[in-house]
Design goal:
With about 290 residues, this protein is an alpha+beta fold. About 15% of the residues lie in helices and about 35% in strands. A twelve-stranded antiparallel β-sheet has the order 1-2-4-5-6-3-9-12-11-10-8-7, covered by helices on one side. The radius of gyration is 19 Å and the shape is globular. The chain starts with a helix and ends with a strand.
Length: about 290
Amino acid sequence: MSDNHVAELVDLLELERLEDNLFRGQSRDIGTRYVFGGQVLGQALSAAQRTVDPKREAHSLHAYFLRAGDINAPIVYSVERTRDGGTFSARRVVAIQHGQPILNGSVSFQEPEQGFEHQLSMPEVPAPEDIEPMHPLSAEKLAALPEKMQRWLGIDGPFEFRHVWPRDEMNPAKRPPYQHIWFRLTAPINDAQALHRALLAYASDFHLIGTATLPHGISYLSRNMQMASLDHALWFHRPFRIDEWLLYSFDSPTTQGARGLARGMIYTRDGRLVASTAQEGLIRIRPD
C-alpha cells in the first residue's frame, strides 16, 4: 500500500496546466476537516516551479493561509512572473477555490552558485532504526473519535514518522516546547529535486504548530480545540532526498494572543542542514 500512497501523492503534485501561468490541482482527503495545508503549499510550489528555468532552484517560500480549503473541490493556482533577474527569479502564487483566494504565496529561485558555508549542528538523537515505529491506535480508541479523525489517525500514509519523544495526543502531558521527529517518504521516487522540494513543502506542515501546544498539555484532539496554520515559511539550503530519513527538529519560542510560533530545522541523517521552517498558527479554545 505504501507504493500506492506515494504514487497518489506524487500525482497530486503534478498539476494540470490550464494556461501558461494557470494550473489546477485536485485535493486529497486524509482525514482532516479541510484541505491539509501542506497539500496547498506543495501544489503552490509545484505551480511556481513550472514557470521558472529548471536551472533555477527554489530557495524560499513564504505563504499566508487565508481560508480553509474544500476537500471536495479542485484548486486553481495563478502564478505571477514577478521578476527574472541575472541569477534570481521571483514568483507570486495565489491558490483559488470557489472564486476566492485560500492562499497567497511568494517563491524565490536562484541559479546554484558557490559561497561561504556554515550551519548549526544536528541535535544528538537516536538513529531512526533505534526508535520504535508509531503504533496505530486501538480499534476501541479510534471508535471514540469522529469519523474524520479516525481516518487521519488510522491512515497508512505516504510518510513514515518516528518520534524521538512520543506523546499520547489523546492524553497529552505538559513538557518543554521542542521535539525531534525522523521522517521519510515510504517508497523511492525519481531524482528530480523539484519533486523532492514540493514533497518536503507538503511534509513540512506536519507537527510544526503542534510544537507550540507542548507546554500547555493540549493537542489537536483536546476538547473544543481550534487549531489552524496562519502562515508558513520554508527555506531550502542544500540538496536532499525525501525518500531517505530526515530529522525534523522543532522548537516553539512563544505562544500568546491565541497564536503560537513554531520553528523547524531539517537535517539529513549525516548531519547536513537542508531546510528550515517557521509557522504561526491559531491555537484557541472555543466556548461550549
